Amino acid sequence: MTTTARQAAEPTALPSALVGQLLAHAVAGGAPSVEIHAPATGAKLADLPQSSTDDIERAFATARAAQRDWARTPVRERVAVLRRLHDIVLAEQSTILDIVQLETGKSRAHAFDEVGDVAVNARYYASVAARLLADRKPRGVLPVLTKVDVRHRPKGVVAVISPWNYPLALAVSDALPALVAGNAVVARPDNQTALTALWAIDAAERAGLPRGLWQAVLGRGSVIGGEVIGRADYVDYTGSSATGRTIAQQAGQRLIGYSLELGGKNPLLVLADADVSRAARIAVRACFASAGQLCESIERIYVHQDVHDRFVAEFVDRVRALRLGSGLDYDTDIGSLTFPRQLDTVTEHVDDAVAKGATVLAGGKARPDLGPYFYEPTVLADVGPGMTVYREETFGPVVSIYRVGSDDEAVDAANDTAYGLNASVWTKDTARGREIAARIDAGSVNVNEGFIAAWGSADAPSGGLGISGTGRRHGPEGLLKYVDTQTIATQRVLPIAPLPGMSEHLWAKTMTLYFGVMKTLRQK
């Protein structure tokens, strides 16, 4: 039994006027253009101009000039831009959903996840920015006599280097807190999905963002990445662990800050008392959102032996029922992979596993009849340590299922990885579920959800452990990483030093008594 399919009946290209409008926002043209094609159909989308070193220099110069005025703009006015952008994204979602689908090949339902992500983050940072950025007046070393002000200063120009798999969510939701904190942004989106990022810049400027504050340069990371990092005051990157290491080294050489969300080999644990039907239904989305091209997606499932057979049967049935297709509508469940290299990796991982004894329970083959990079959502059993898929991130529609005999075995298996981005635990006893979750080495763990509960909770930080990255997006941390704190301390009346005629010895004894008194007062 194979996954069902549906051919596209919708347009396979974008209106040329729209493409021209978006490309006008790119600081590019100094290097030869490249052709961009729709992965699901192979249709040409655009001749994408590329940025030269001069283009990049110009983008940063423009951004720095704009940032100086923006930093002096009251927070309430910056916040108003986010609120208007929130409304534009929701009102014009049909247009941006078409662009995201055509550039990535993903299904419309999975493209809408990105619209929702931007709306949630725009609303959240609009509501908390004034409070988070407000000056603080902490207690001074000598209360009353020492007045202390702590202020937040924007970093300057933030480089947001975003990937192709979630081109709207990861380009916009990282830029918004940087902008509302008073920074400018120079974006380096992936070439394949640059039109999505350019649409976001166009929408932000229509929402009132000053022109020049959010710039975009275009080119392969291996060609222009170093030029971008070499001019930035902070770097925000989402992508592979290998590239993340390189960016960390480049940023470290300049002693600038960075935030990296990298890969994942995420586990899902089905405990003995789990609601099997619900777990199987949600696990399908957790594994195959955007055809598995998601750092947060599940690639390993550990099922307690008491419910293993029931879970596998229902899960596999649901996977086999998924509809593949490239339509610009909600009538398909799974879209295409985005690049030939992704198809090659998926094929290699599955073929290697099968050759070494793994069993294909669903999928297991490419679907060139649907488009050049389609691959069926695939479920593997009998996967062992000698197989590539056992430890390496596939980043495609492939998940392996393992039988376990206890919670301890499941937790140990979940933690047997260098990654630590996301995890999922399923149980009817949510208190127990939280206890199990706390034992898993991951930046976020969802109880009775796959990834959206944690990811979508914009007030909570999101990020990885181990080789899954460093730094956090979302929550207060997602905004405060884009500012430096400045402490201004004003001493009044008496100095913090011996009074005239007082010996250093007497000063030390006096301060010793003072420290003891202050400890007692603060304990109360």
Can you characterise this structure?
- The protein has helices at residues 16-23, 53-71, 75-91, 93-104, 108-133, 169-172, 175-180, 194-206, 221-229, 241-254, 276-288, 308-320, 340-355, 388-391, 407-414, 430-438, 452-455, 475-480, 504-523; strands spanning 4-6, 31-37, 44-50, 146-154, 157-162, 184-189, 214-216, 234-238, 257-261, 266-270, 298-304, 323-325, 359-362, 378-381, 398-404, 419-420, 422-426, 444-447, 465-466, 469-470, 483-491.
- It is of the alpha/beta class and 524 residues long.
- The protein has a 7-stranded mixed β-sheet with strand order 13-14-15-11-10-17-18, sandwiched between helices. A 6-stranded mixed β-sheet has the order 7-6-5-8-9-20, with helices on both faces.
- The mean pLDDT is 96.
**What is the gyration radius calculated from CA atoms?**
26 Å
Query: How far is the first residue's CA from the last residue's CA?
Result: 70 Å
Describe the largest sheet.
7 strands, mixed
The largest beta-sheet arranges its strands as 13-14-15-11-10-17-18
Features:
524 residues; alpha/beta; six-stranded mixed sheet; 19 helices; 20% strand; globular
Short description:
This protein is α/β, with parallel strands linked by helices and 524 residues long. The chain has 19 helices and 21 strands. The chain is 42% helix and 20% strand.
